[in-house]
Predict the 3D structure of the following.
Amino acid sequence: MTKFVTAKARLEKGLRFEGEASSGHRLLMDTSIYHEGQNAGFRPIELFLLSIAGYVGMEVISILRKEGQQVTGYEVRMQGIIVEKPENVLEDITVEHIIAGHTLNHEIIGQAISIVEQRFKAACAILGQVAEVRHMYCTVEAQEPVLTEA
């Protein structure tokens, strides 16, 4: 089954664009005042990192749930290094996974991240992305809720 995904960006004012996806969701994109923008929305490069975080997070949590991991919290933090000259290019991306849960299995977590990392590398190759991408993770043993008498 073939699915089409669309996105468009419409110029509003200065360098501010309103983006809209085929899902109907919208957002503002802009740049800093220093770069002749109005700082009224996300930078496109920030959205790129956010989209990676969302993609990676959804894929990893899906695998962990299928493997029976008791995840109680999960955060994906992205950091990118931008080379501004001659053009704005992401040269280096770090993906940090912070996973909280009960009796988490580090081998399963490592495998899940590795699987998603390979999928992500394939997608980046298609896009012609040349950034080096590193994944790291840490786990936090979740505290059992404390019951108090009313």
In short: The helical segments are 44-66, 106-127. The two ends are 55 Å apart (CA to CA). The chain has two domains: 1-42, 43-150. Residues 145-150 have pLDDT under 50 and may be disordered.
